[in-house]
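Quick start: what a row looks like.
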Amino acid sequence: MGDWDIEIDCEGLLCPLPVLRARKRLLALASGTVVCVRATDAMALIDLPHFCAEAGHAYLGAQDDGAVTRHLIRRG
């Protein structure tokens, strides 16, 4: 595992599904928990940071891993 506490597999899902899955999981987590969202949809690179800004979470960045992009989010 990397520098995160929980991983959400959203490979093959189109936006807004990665955002909706992240939102649902983040609601149940303690503040400060770091989540890794694995997504293949390029729109997640726009949608996840926007969601975080609106919801009060910290978007920590993205890292490509082949066809998958790992998005790190810290629960606000």
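That is the whole record. The beta strands are 6-10, 34-39, 58-65, 68-74. The mean pLDDT is 96.
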